[in-house]
Write a sequence for this structure.
């Protein structure tokens, strides 16, 4: 398990902050952030907590995080080079074929001309198909999941959009999940989330409230938060995970009322949906103004 910049540990307390933010007036003064980067299987994970700078900024400035994308970029460059070589090969082949056809054309009737045109059309079709096939599931693309107790503030939203715009050829899905919207009565934070959502409209950024399923993913993919617990607690947790109402049981283990966690997540989901719907309305009315 990777650790954050301040000798942070993904322990019970770190996890508890994520789970309880926004319940019974619990508003921690800092943000806990988990970053997962995966290319099918989990390849990189790191945690951050607000210090002098916000967690998203810490992540974007983190040498290891940057290096992760440098590595992916290098892989992408190699693939692009291979594609270029392939294309050059294809182009040469077409050139040669044309020369042969042209040579044959000398002294021959117009029919050859038509054949040449058909040939070219077929070749273009084939090249396009090959290109499309190669673009699907490029091995260098990754999924990024940010899990945090607060949504990004305006300033961090801008930085995340810049990062996404620069690296989007390497990113398949960029998911940002949170327990609660951060200081959402402030207009600039509303604008930040709307901008993030707009940046993702074309492809990749998804904003989401946490759900039972996403909590489970966090708790299951890395259970090193169990390390700080007693052997007895650990074994009782492992037993719980196989039981029917395991979500409720695990929440109780964290000292939380399961329904309050579910209600908080539902409220966050509604607040987010309403906020982004407002944005859609504004955009639609702007568009109507332009048209009329
Ligand atoms: Zn921030």
């Amino acid at each position: 398990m990777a650790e954050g910049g301040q000798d942070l540990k993904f322990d019970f307390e770190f996890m508890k902050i994520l789970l309880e933010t926004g319940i019974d007036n619990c508003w921690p003064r800092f943000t806990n952030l988990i970053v997962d980067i995966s290319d099918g299987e989990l390849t990189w994970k790191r945690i951050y907590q607000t210090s002098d700078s916000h967690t998203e900024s810490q992540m974007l400035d983190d040498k290891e995080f940057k290096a992760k994308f440098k590595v992916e970029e290098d892989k992408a460059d190699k693939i692009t080079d291979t594609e270029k070589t392939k294309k050059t090969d294809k182009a040469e082949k077409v050139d040669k074929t044309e020369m042969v056809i042209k040579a044959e054309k000398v002294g021959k009737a117009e029919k050859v001309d038509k054949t040449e045109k058909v040939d070219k059309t077929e070749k273009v079709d084939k090249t396009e198909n090959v290109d499309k096939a190669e673009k699907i599931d490029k091995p260098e693309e990754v999924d990024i999941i940010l899990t945090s107790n607060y949504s990004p503030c305006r300033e961090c939203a801008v930085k995340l959009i810049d990062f996404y715009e620069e690296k989007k050829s390497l990113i398949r899905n960029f998911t940002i999940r949170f327990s609660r919207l951060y200081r959402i009565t402030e207009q600039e934070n509303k604008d930040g989330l709307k901008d993030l959502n707009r940046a993702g409209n074309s492809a990749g950024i998804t904003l989401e409230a946490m759900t039972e399923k996403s909590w489970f993913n966090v708790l299951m993919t890395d259970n090193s938060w169990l390390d700080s617990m007693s052997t007895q607690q650990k074994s009782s947790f492992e037993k719980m995970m196989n039981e029917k109402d395991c979500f409720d049981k695990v929440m109780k283990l964290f000292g939380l009322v399961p329904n309050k966690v579910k209600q908080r997540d539902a409220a966050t989901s509604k607040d987010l949906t309403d906020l982004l719907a407002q944005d859609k309305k504004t955009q639609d009315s702007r568009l109507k103004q332009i048209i009329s």
Q: What stands out?
A: The chain has two domains: 12-61+141-230+267-291, 77-135. The chain is about 60% helix and 15% strand. The longest helix spans residues 63-105. Confidence is low (pLDDT under 50) at residues 99-118, 121-137.
